[in-house]
Specification:
Layout: H1 5-39, H2 49-64, E1 67-72, E2 79-80, H3 81-102, E3 106-114, E4 117-124, H4 140-151, E5 155-160, E6 166-173, E7 183-184
Parallel strand pairs: 1-3
Antiparallel strand pairs: 2-7, 3-4, 4-6, 5-6
Helix pairs in contact: 2-3, 3-4
Length: about 190
């Protein structure tokens, strides 16, 4: 027995509803996993933020073969765990993006205190970010970086043009050491 057009439409509507339900479950799962990952504190941060970033840069160089320079204005930054974890994860994700997308031969990371803010600049000499790719639904890397920065009431700026490389600037307000009992300074 052959199906009529309305029977096909009904089958299609049922299938469409099921797909929408599955996609919403996948979205919820991805958000939950992101939250868990964001809250994990890497053990290397026990050595301090500066040492943890130095370790991450050395791992990046070893894995990628890409030159990476690190400049820090201080030997260590007195910073709370949430900010240290976020900054470490931002460096980690940014370097991962360089490997996957930038086609760069050199990266520079600068970390400095700028008044009551911590400033981090990550610069690569790669192919740049094409404007239409910045808001792609699967560009989790930059979205994750932006979410981390905004969660700390910070500012996130992207300066990039095709063929001109990319500069990520992250400005995070600092809390005073006395105001937060969870501050760790090495």
């Amino acid at each position: 027995m052959r199906k009529t057009g309305s029977e096909f439409a009904t089958d299609w509507n049922v299938l469409n509803a099921k797909v929408r339900t599955v996609l919403s479950h996948i979205d919820a799962t991805v958000k939950a996993i992101r939250t868990i990952i964001n809250n994990l504190r890497p053990a290397v941060l026990d050595l301090g933020l500066a040492a943890a970033i130095e370790w991450q840069v050395n791992e990046f160089r070893r894995r990628s073969g890409i030159a990476c320079d690190l400049f820090m204005s201080e030997k260590e930054f007195a910073i709370d765990d949430a900010r240290a974890t976020s900054l470490f994860r931002i460096v980690q994700e940014s370097l991962s993006n360089v490997i996957r997308h930038a086609d760069a031969s050199r990266v520079m990371i600068e970390l400095s205190r700028n008044g009551d803010r911590l400033a981090m600049k990550i610069t690569d000499n790669g192919i740049g970010i094409y404007p239409e790719r910045r808001k792609k639904t699967n560009s989790f890397g930059l979205v994750g970086v932006e979410e981390r920065v905004l969660a700390l009431d910070g500012e996130f700026l992207i300066d990039s043009a095709p063929g001109q490389g990319t500069v990520l600037t992250i400005l995070i307000p600092l809390k005073t050491v006395d105001a937060d009992p969870h501050i760790h300074a090495a």
